[in-house]
Amino acid sequence: MRIDKFLSNMGYGSRKEVKVLLKSKAVEVNGQAVRDPKVHVDEAADVVTVGGEKVDYTEFIYLLMNKPQGVISATEDKYDQTVIDLLGEAEQNFEPFPVGRLDKDTEGFLLITNDGKLAHELLSPKKHVDKKYFALIDGVVTEEDGDAFRRGVMLDDGYVTKPAVLEILKSGEQSEIQLTITEGKFHQVKRMFQSVGKEVTYLKRLSMGPLELDPNLQRGEYRHLAEEELDALKQRK
Fold this sequence. Notes:
Layout: H1 3-9, H2 15-23, E1 27-29, E2 32-33, E3 48-50, E4 53-54, E5 62-67, H3 89-92, E6 97-98, E7 107-113, H4 116-123, E8 131-138, H5 143-151, E9 165-170, E10 174-181, H6 188-195, E11 199-208, E12 211-212, E13 222-224, H7 227-236
Helix pairs in contact: 1-2
């Protein structure tokens, strides 16, 4: 890995800022000063120091984002802004990707990482990882809907969903609900309500597995997972 990418990944600034740092002779590799940003280092074997302080390389990045509406859950797109576009250069250098997808008009909890193994474990249908949503529904949501969701409902393509838990917060012409599902079919929550003759007008994901959306994150903001949060995720899988 190039030394400028190494240092940028470790939070020492953008590639441009790292070049300035290198010119200051503050960076050493195995005791030798390095000024050329193109120099390659072995992140597992070489000893890199900045100002005499050893830099321990981290291979993976784990981010919790409050995804806003209008942004798509993808790494790149020709037409729309993606969740990766919302990240800083230091985070983008890790080449992360969203774990699962939230629809363009859905907001809330989104995990972003470059740890493919963890992502696979969290998305595997065999793992039954809970995903909880808050939604506004056009139509009166009833206990009968809850019974149907517990049994599993047939979607428009003939697929029968796994059991889901519906909590009715407010029932009326516009209902408020929370729904917990263990799978992630395309537009699943919307299609589940369509199957009982109702329409989702607003959707927000609140949690995934043991992790909940951080209430301190504004739409479009993100933060690194705390160590205990990452441990909880890995234990859950």
